[in-house]
Amino acid sequence: MGRALLLGLCLSAAPVLADTWPELVLQAEHPVEGMRGGNLSGLALCQGEMWTVSDRDDDQIYRLDTRYAEWQAEALSIDVPPPPESGLPWGVRMMHKAVSPLRGGDLDFEGISCDEAGNRYVVSETHAAVLQVPPIGEPAWLKIDPALVRQARGSGMLLHFNALFEGIAVNPQGTQLWLAAERERRGLLTLRKQQSVWNCEGGCVVMSEGGLEQPPARLKAKAQQKDFADLALFDGKLFTLERMAYRICRRTPATGAVERCWSFANDALTDARRYNSGYGTAEALSLDAKGAWIGVDNGNHIRADGEKRPIVWRFAAPQGGWSAKP
To answer: Residue 102 pLDDT > 80, yes or no?
Structure first.
């Protein structure tokens, strides 16, 4: 084999570092007031309104009043019925049961999406379940094929406490949804609605992968487990929020294959926006044609500039739009 060909093969097999992706440009940041439990953990643009959830609040979701620079969270109280059996192993369930009284939030809402009819879908990490909140009427848990959790665990996902479902995306018709497994292993799963049941038609697992990833160089941090922090569906493509890599990636819905990624590290990691945390804080993602909304769950951490409220960043869409080819 010629040296040039060998070199080409080596280069094509080399991992792509986070810092090499095109950078998105920050247009605005919005502190969020009024979230009782803080911990903003999902975003969804539903019929022109922005909605969010907190992983500390089990009995309400929030509509965001976005008219001013500081956004105001307006709570919508929800009467949540008892969650269904999850199929998660005893050890994982017991860890969640022990921790929830200390942290607050038994359901651990980690993502929100919506369909064109105005139904909102909220994923519970602790119960591996999805709550549907209709525009009118009472919330109800989706009837999900038990094979979802079995197949996920068989592919190495949902094995560890606090590393379960972290994001959700629903198609406009409300007939298919995708879930993002957070880490160790991370992955994407899908369900299709058949009458009143959401089934693993042809298999639920779209992709599963493990391994380490190097954070942006300016963090001066060691490699971390690959993760997904949230999921969005836009223009027929899935977009994953990858917290430790500080990037958004466009993926093929059928396979989860990466088509293109964009970094948001430059503006997210300025000195003033740093948190004294060993982990990334970007937890929520929503897209439209003009840009991306990224929500920051700072937990109990205070930013270097003194800001302690949840934050939503607005990044401009990349040149050529979200469908641009590399």
So the answer is: no
